[in-house]
C-alpha cells in the first residue's frame, strides 16, 4: 500500500489507513500536518482521548469536536518536543471555555521544554507532568513508554507502544527528510545519532512521525535512512563513505564506521573497506563475523599480515588462545621482530596460565607492567570464573 496516495483529508483511523485491524489502530486517529503544522495523533482510551502533539492548525479541533468528541473528553496531551508547529495547537485547545474552566487536561513533556510553554501552562493552572526516559503513561487499556531522544532538540521525546511495535517519533525520525539539530533548543548532532541508534535497537515495525505519512511495516528502513543522514551530518555531506568510515573509527564510533563500510561495500568491491569492517567487528566483539572476513582474505593470501593478526586477535576474543598463537607464530616466522605479534602471543600464553613462557618473550615482558598487568590478570580471572 502506498500511503502517499491515500486521501488524508480530515481525521482518519489508522486501522483504515493501514488496512490492519487491531484495537490500538482502531482507536488511533491521524490528521496530517501541512504548511506550519505537525501531524496530530489522537488516541481514544477508557478515560477519554489523548493527543500526541496538538500541532498548529486551529481548524483541527473544530472538525475533531464535531465528529469525534467534546473538548472535555481530552484528558492528556503528549508533547514530542517544544517547536511551535508541534505545540501551538495546545494554546488553541486551552481557549475552549470548558477546557479552561475544568482543567481536566494533563500535559506530558520533557523537563527541558520551552520555558515560555511551561510558564503559560503554569499561569493557566494546567497540570504538567515532566516525564523521563522509560516512564510509562497509562492510557487503559493502552500503555505508552517514554523514550528520551535528545538530538533534534534537548527535550525531544518518542512514545512507544510495545504491543504493536509502533513508534511516535516526533521529528527525531522522519520518512522523507532529516531534521537537523536546533542548537537554540539544545540540539546536538552527536546526540541525535545516538538517539537514532537507540531506536534502531528497539526494532520498531510502524512509525508515526511528526511530519510525513505514517509508515506501515517499514519503520526500520526509515530509521536506517535517518541513521545514514545523521552520519553524513557529522562527517560532511560530500565525504565519501570510506573516508567517513575511517574518520568515525578513529573517533571511536565503531558501529557507525561499520555502517559506512557496509554502504561502501554495497557499491562495489573495496579491499580497504573490507579490512576496516573486519577491524570494526573485532573492536565490537563480533569475533565470529570478523573471522569469516579474515578467512576470505587468507584464502587469497595466506601470508596476509593484517588477516593473520586480526584472526589471532579474534580467536583470543573467543578464548581460543592455543589456536590464536598459531597465527601470531606465522607472523613471527615472517618477521621475528614483529613486536605486536610477540606481545599478543605473550598475552595468549598468559591467559592460558603459561606465565613463565609469556614472560620469556621480551616484547611482552616489557609491556607487562602497571595497568596492562592488572587488565590481563582481571581478564584471566574472568575467564577462569
Q: Would you write up a description of this structure?
A:
With 385 residues, the protein is an alpha/beta fold. It has 2 domains: 233 residues, Metallo-beta-lactamase, Chain A (4-Layer Sandwich); 144 residues, Alpha Horseshoe (Serine Threonine Protein Phosphatase 5, Tetratricopeptide repeat), CATH 1.25.40. It is 50% helix and 14% strand. A 7-stranded mixed β-sheet has the order 1-2-3-4-5-6-7. Strand 3 and strand 4 form a beta hairpin. Helix 9 packs antiparallel against helix 10 and helix 12 packs antiparallel against helix 13. The longest helix has 17 residues.
Write the layout of secondary structure elements.
Layout: E1 12-13, H1 14-18, H2 23-26, E2 28-31, E3 40-45, E4 48-52, H3 59-67, E5 74-78, H4 84-93, H5 97-102, E6 106-109, H6 115-124, E7 128-130, E8 136-139, E9 142-148, E10 157-161, E11 166-170, H7 189-202, E12 206-209, H8 219-235, H9 241-251, H10 254-266, H11 271-283, H12 287-300, H13 305-317, H14 321-334, H15 339-351, H16 355-359, H17 362-367, H18 370-384
Helix pairs in contact: 7-8, 9-10, 9-11, 10-11, 11-12, 11-13, 12-13, 13-14, 14-15
